[in-house]
Amino acid sequence: MEAFAPGRVNLMGDHTDYTGGLVLPMAIDRGTTVIGARAGNDGIRLRSAELPGEAVVPLDVSDPKVTEPPWARYVAGVVAAIKPSHGFVGQVSTTLPVGAGLSSSAALELAVALALGFEGSALELAQACQRAEQAASGVPCGVMDQLACAAGVEGHALLIDCAALTVTPVRLPDEVEVVVAHSGEGRRLADSAYAERRRSCEAAEAEIGPLPRADLAAVARITNAEVRARARHVVTENERVGAFVEALRAGDLVRCGALMAASHESLRTDFDVSTARLDELAAELSSTAGVFGARLTGAGFGGCVVALTRPQALHVGWRVRAVNGARVVTDRKG
Ligand code: GLA
């Protein structure tokens, strides 16, 4: 059995998924492979080509968060979420930088779930792996990462409505490149700050109702200034996703770039998830000839900047292509 799942980068729409907003990620041509075979009922044993230790997970694992080594928590999360009926022995390898904000954990979860025999739609796979991620990390993440990695379409970004859970592929123009550059900062504070941001959005919704339907006039009525700023980011970011999709379809890459700059600014000020290094990197890339725009991508607090560029404009980071989503490569038994 061999299963593969890509990582993802998000072009537009961060910190919108967990309030049912819009996002525009794409699955990328780097990912994680699980190769192995069914093995009795003794649980799951996986080794990693990149990371130390072995994941040894009983079929009835109850608390994935305490599994060691830490990467094995995602394996345990998947086992808890999909409850496989049989054991498995195998090996994991990845071409994704681990912990860089390109959803290496989502790719691991999806590849493990498929290798363990999960059957269901891309959405069902994504939702099972979202539960796995939450159980493994304790972070109340949204569905974007797992759904982007599950539902990727070659040559396309994915417009995801996180309330309706619909995925609409949006073709990327041929003359554009997507480049991801790492800030060099791990996402140390990301977990606690992520949960805190999510609580602020819930506080905003308690006052003015669902953020995907709110406008700026409603946001202005929120009493607490910090909660108001968080909500303003979400409302304007949802608008930017819609505008970015329109601009992509019209081939207006200059407009796409301007929307990326506005998104970064909103994430920096209103949502307060940027860092000095991410700001510097986004500014540096944006001001390079041939770059339409750049913004931090994913949760923030370190991690990566994504840039939209003319071909060969940047010689830093990773050039990524949009690819198809997670799949079983071969289900040969043995
Ligand atoms: C992380 C989460 C996603 C999403 C992004 C921010 O990647 O896993 O669900 O909330 O942050 O857009």
Protein described:
The mean pLDDT is 96. This protein has helices at 72-82, 104-115, 122-137, 144-151, 190-208, 216-220, 225-249, 253-268, 276-286; strands at residues 2-12, 22-38, 44-48, 54-57, 88-94, 156-161, 166-171, 177-182, 291-297, 304-309, 318-320, 327-330. The protein has 334 residues and is α+β, with helices and mostly antiparallel strands. It has nine helices and twelve strands. The strands form two sheets. Strands 1, 2, 3, 4, 5, 6, 7 and 12 form an eight-stranded mixed beta sheet that branches. The chain has two domains: 2-170 and 322-329, Ribosomal Protein S5, domain 2, CATH 3.30.230.10; 171-320, GHMP kinase, C-terminal domain (Alpha-Beta Plaits, 2-Layer Sandwich), CATH 3.30.70.890. Bound molecules: alpha-D-galactopyranose. Alpha-D-galactopyranose (GLA) is lined by residues 14-15, 17-18, 141-142, 144-145, 298-299.
Query: Helical stretch count?
Result: 9
Shape: globular
The portion of residues assigned to helices is 25-40%
Average pLDDT score: 96
CATH topology of the largest domain: Ribosomal Protein S5, domain 2
Main sheet? 8 strands, mixed
Count of the separate structural domains: 2
Features of the shown structure:
about 35% helix, four-stranded antiparallel beta sheet, 9 helices, Ribosomal Protein S5, domain 2, alpha+beta, binds alpha-D-galactopyranose, Alpha-Beta Plaits, about 325 residues, 12 strands, eight-stranded mixed beta sheet, 2 domains
